[in-house]
Fold this protein.
Amino acid sequence: MPINLVLIGPPGVGKGTQAGLLTERLGLVHLASGDVFRGEIAAGTDLGRVASGYIERGELVPDDVTIGMMESRFTTLEAMTSGFVLDGFPRTVAQAVALDARLEALGTVVARVVSLEAPDDVVVARLSGRRTCLNCGAVFHIETMPPKQEGVCDDCGSKLVTRTDDKEETIRQRLAVFHTQTQPVLDYYAETGKLFRVDGRGTIEEVYRTAIGGLRV
Ligand code: AMP
């Protein structure tokens, strides 16, 4: 059976970086809800217009919109046959319940939920130096992971930007949303025995090895 993983953690803890490694090394399909929303905004779609206000304010996009959007992606033939890593979804208990119900109907399950953890101050420091490629989603950090050429994506050559929601005030709001709305998702998964807690402050390789430890891959 393909392996399906979920990565949960506060903004800036390294979900995207770990999802990138899981995709590259295990051949999983990477599904990042934030990247999907940003792609829809860049393409000027109706969905993008609905999502943009919430994202700018650091709030969650409503569950019905988010669930519908992600369901159409994790149920594709490619995701169902290769296995997937969900990055940034589910972020509410309602989303987690909808995910489990849909997978059960399809005869598959989430194998493991990796909770990447770090104190708020650490993620604020990481996010304020973060630079993102709006074209391919690659992420850099001006101090810890600088691109080869300043302001240019190593992977696709596009311009790197500071995401509008990576301003300190919005970061604090996103962290508050994480604590109130997403932390209950960890309790939900803890009851299923699938939750795996990982200290997100190690090196990228250390975090990766701990996150996949014991998985039959
Ligand atoms: P991210 O790139 O994962 O930090 O997501 C950026 C923003 O997109 C979040 O602050 C939310 O506004 C929105 N978003 C991403 N994923 C979700 C989700 N699962 N539920 C609701 N809103 C989301």
Summary: The pocket of adenosine monophosphate is lined by residues 11, 33-34, 37, 54-55, 58-61, 66, 88-89, 91, 95, 165, 174 (CB under 6 Å).
